[in-house]
Amino acid sequence: MSQNKIILCGLPASGKTTFIAALWYILSNKEISTTLSLGSLPKSRNYLNELSRKWSRLIQVARTPTDEYQEISISLKSETSTVTLSIPDMSGETWRSLWSNRSCPEHVAEWTQNSSGILLFLHSDKITPPVDIVSSNAMVRAMGGEPEDREFVPWSPDSSPTQVILVDLLQSLTLPPLGKGKKRLGIIISAWDKTKDTGSTPGEYLRRNLPLLHQFLQSSDCFTEIKIYGVSAQGGDFESEKELQHLKDEDIPSKRILVVDGTDSNHDLTLPIQWLMKK
Ligand SMILES: Nc1nc2c(ncn2[C@@H]2O[C@H](COP(=O)(O)OP(=O)(O)O)[C@@H](O)[C@H]2O)c(=O)[nH]1
Ligand SMILES: [Mg+2]
Fold it and tell me: Global pTM?
C-alpha cells in the first residue's frame, strides 16, 4: 500500500479547526459514505472528539490556543493507499510567522519536507484586500480630509494583504530549504456559504478577490497540479438566526457540510484529501 503525507496550513482564522471538527465527525459517525475512511486511530483522541461534539451541537469551535494542541495527525485510507493528514500548528501562528519572521520550528520544517501534498486554507470572508493610492486618497477625501494631511502608519508584516502573505507562504513551502520537489496543492476557500450571493465557482472567486495569488498559481510552476475547492464545514453562519435554525432542522448533521468543486457539490470532506493523494 502506498503511503502519502499531506500537510494542512493556513493563517489564523482560516477555517482549519472547523474543517478538522467536521472531518472527524463524518469519519467517526459514518452517516454518509466517504471516499476515504479512518485508518489507524491517533493515540490521543480527546481533543478531536471534543471538537466534533461541539461541531455536531452547533457550538462554534474555540479559537485554538497557541500553546496547546500544536500537532495533530489523522490517518485515512482508500482501497489502495493510506494518507496521513498532518496539522503541525492548528493555531496558524506558525504560518503567519513564516511570513513575518521568516522562521519556523524544526518539526514544521520536517513535516513540510516530507509531505507529498499541501492543503492551504483561506477564509472567504476574511480577506485583507490591497488598497491602492487612488482608493486611499478617495477614502481620506470621503471622510472630509486631504490626502497630504494624512498620518502615515508604519508598515507591519501582519497588516499586509492576504494574497501577498499567501504567495510568500506558498513560495516558502515549495522552495529550499522547506520545499523538496514539486507536489500537488489543494486550496480550500472556507466559509463557502458566505459567497453564495456571488454565484461564482471557487476558481472564479479566487481570481476576482485574490488576483495576485491567482496569477502566481497560473505562472509559478511550483506545483504538479492545483485544485481550488469551496468548503462550508460549518454549513452556515451561526450569527444569523435564520441560518442557525436551518442547520438545526437538518436531521443528518453530516449533510450540513458542502464541498464545492467547480459547479459540483458534495458533503464528502475527504474528497480534497483523496485528490491530493493522486500522483
Ligand atoms: N459561515 C461560516 N463560518 C465558518 C465556517 N467555517 C469556519 N467558520 C468561521 O470562521 C472562523 C474561523 O474558523 P476556525 O475554524 O476557528 O479557523 P482556524 O483559526 O483556521 O482554526 C470562526 O469564526 C468560524 O465560526 C463555515 O463553513 N461557514
Ligand atoms: Mg483554530
Answer: 0.94
Closest atom of ligand 1 to CA, residue 231: 27
Q: Return the domain boundaries, the chain.
A: 2-277
Grid cell, residue 170, equals 506558498
CA of 226 to the centre of ligand 1 (A): 23
Tell me the β-bridge partners of 93. none
Give the tens place of pLDDT for each residue, 23-33. Answer: 999 999 999 99
Distance CA 42, CA 103 (A): 28
Confirm or reject CATH 3.40.50.300 for domain 2-277, answering yes or no.
yes
Closest-lying ligand 1 atom to the alpha carbon of residue 62: 16
Name all residues whose Cβ lies below 6 A of ligand 1: 10, 12-18, 60-61, 63-64, 92, 123, 190-191, 193-194, 232-234, 236-237
Q: At what angle do helices 46-56 and 16-29 cross, to 10 degrees?
A: 90
Measured by CA distance, the residue closest to atom 18 of ligand 1 is 13
